[in-house]
Amino acid sequence: MSTMNDLRLILGLVVALLLFPAIASATEEGTATGDDPIGVGVIPGGGGFYIQDEGFRLRVLGYVQAQANLQDGSLDRDSARDFSVRRARINFLVDIYEDFEVFLELDGAPESRTAMVEARLNWRLVDEALQLRAGKFTSQFSHENARSSRDIDTVERYLALNSMFLLPALDTQFGIMGHGRLGRRQALGWSLGLYNGNSSANANVRDDNDDKEVQARLDYKWTDQLRTGVALNYTRETEQTLSLVDASFNRFAGVDVSGRRRGVGADLFWQRDAWSLRVEGLRFRFDGADESRIELSGGFVQPAWFVHGSSAGGTQLLLRMETARLDADTDDDGDSLYALTAGVNHFLNPNVRLQVNAMATHFDGPSQIQGFDSSRTTRALLTQLQYKF
């Protein structure tokens, strides 16, 4: 898409959003075909605008994330201090006769070139128990990734997951998935998906091979406070490079992989009053380009505490401890990253959030990519201001 078309699309979306309140006010007392009333309004707390009629509901949501980062000057980057728009997304969600849902998400951030992040159709075949989803959508292997970027606790996701994203893998994918929730309390969730396996959030590429990626996941809600999940993954990789990266996607070591990829993941979330705990880990085994065995493993542990208030208005403190390890022949380079993040999430109101993450990342050996001749600890300050509607 050309730059001019990008600007036209973004301008059109902005105009539509500006006119929506006026349209809503004008149609609040209006009628659809016949005398059926039309409902129009706003869902508080970032739930978006909506317009609905019998058997139909359209919601328009969106969010913008302005970011300022201060990186360690020893890293191989164009700039140690930068400002950016991390994401600028608008969502269209359509419910049709309760059984069908259409979701479209576009990203207008500068590097995205107005990308199609998701475009999916969901069909409820048997209530919540059996549903079918098709199109481009977020794969369910990682619960951290399945959470919307507007709701995650830290500015970026964890190290090992970032390494998988760059393959690309485990991100938004083209495919089809069966899923649902079972039991009287709908405590057991399940999904089984088949994907191209070569896409990512802001890439819309056709499949370049006949191999497909299979993902399966189960999660169980034990109580209102405790939920756990496990996931499996299998595919065959075309030859590409698997890299160890930090939270800002700085590369430290890499190795070529191809052939089979098998993975397992697990996660846990516990919450009680102002306290919460998130834990997630993954482990993948790859075939190396020279038929050697390669493994990537890692995860995080994150306790958090609302000092006061809640996500509707309050301040949350968190501490994230994480690691990523590349078990492979990396020549003389190190093979492990460790990171510690002290974070603050300040919710000015349900729509506006300020995140501040102070990070220390340690690489356990030399890095030819970064030009380090020994182990090194780097530091970063990531800040993000988000507005959602």
Topology at a glance:
Layout: H1 3-27, E1 39-43, E2 48-53, E3 56-71, E4 81-96, E5 100-107, E6 115-126, E7 130-138, H2 143-146, H3 159-165, E8 172-182, E9 188-195, E10 213-221, E11 226-245, E12 251-272, E13 275-288, E14 293-310, E15 313-327, E16 336-349, E17 352-363, E18 376-388
Antiparallel strand pairs: 1-2, 2-3, 3-4, 3-18, 4-5, 5-6, 6-7, 7-8, 8-9, 9-10, 10-11, 11-12, 12-13, 13-14, 14-15, 15-16, 16-17, 17-18
The rough form would be described as globular
CATH class: Mainly Beta
Major sheet: arrangement of strands: 3-4-5-6-7-8-9-10-11-12-13-14-15-16-17-18
Please name the fourth-level CATH homologous superfamily.
Porin
Query: Mean pLDDT, rounded to whole units?
Result: 87
CATH topology name, in short, is Porin
Low-confidence stretches: 13-36
H-E order: HEEEEEEEHHEEEEEEEEEEE
Helix content: under 10%
- CATH-scheme architecture: Beta Barrel
